[in-house]
Amino acid sequence: MFNILLIIILLEFLPFTTKQQALPNIYVTDYEIIDIVNTFYQYDYNAARKNEISINYQGHTNLQSMDDCAPSPLFTYVDPNIEKRPTFLTFRRLMNNYNPKVGVQETITKKEMIEIDAFLTSIMNTTIAKQLFIFLNSKNHPYAKDRNTLVENLKQIWFHPYSRSRGILDSSGFEHVFMGELKNNEVSGLHNWYRFYVLESRGRDSNFDYKGYIIKRFGTMGSVKFSWRGYYKKGGSFFIATSPEFDFFTFTLCFLFRRGSNGCNIEVNGCPATITVHDFQYNNRIFVGSAYPNIGSMTEECKFYNAGDRK
């Protein structure tokens, strides 16, 4: 019976299948990475502007503390019109498609597959996607053979299910990084500000509580502590106010060229950070395992660029 169910599950995910299995080793300089991410940021037209979002960091905390240093939410205001932007709209529709508990089977319905395709279509219609495609094409990357090839490979590395526990198809790169998971009494992943805001805004329904900041970089990025359904996140970092496509394609860029222990050095609005990206290999395929920004030291450039409104 188990084997029959496994075959059914595998057949259900045939739309994810691509011929590309191995990722090529293509030389890209640190400067090129920084430059293309700066270009992403420049063309992040769907991002929240300064007057569309308000943040209240409150008390400072650390990885070891169990104290609640923030009696109020992190996000005190987010303009509801942000959700009307196509990439935010399609991104939010994915939020009810996942069970956060690792070890619980994830199944993708036809409706959910349509929602994944709608999200990919919306982000692929952005200038950031076009800039990534141009960059990959300039490096003769096989993902940039054409638009459809890129989309199918993005779908595989981010959305194809894999197992984090006991062989059960319970996870994916997208679920881990953007939605968050619950495992071993801790929150795992969840490195997206808008997902954080949505959970926080639901109040008691989400059992979600912001505990304080570890590192803050104005309205650009932060590392924070929080709890969700009684599970703790000792320290989780994310960009702030960026669009779903900025995060998605920045993490994708670093996955393709800087995955592993060395990190992916970038700058966001003048503030340095290093993206950590790990792959996850399952059934001879490679997927996104995790991706998140490690916030760098405060610099004068970071202070300068964050002194006024985001341009």
Automatic annotation (TrEMBL):
Entry protein name: Endoribonuclease
Signal among keywords: yes
Swiss-Prot/TrEMBL keywords: Endonuclease, Hydrolase, Lyase, Manganese, Metal-binding, Nuclease, RNA-binding, Signal
Source taxon at top rank: Eukaryota
Segment forming the signal sequence: 1-19
GO molecular function: hydrolase activity; lyase activity; metal ion binding; RNA binding; RNA endonuclease activity
Subunit structure: Monomer.
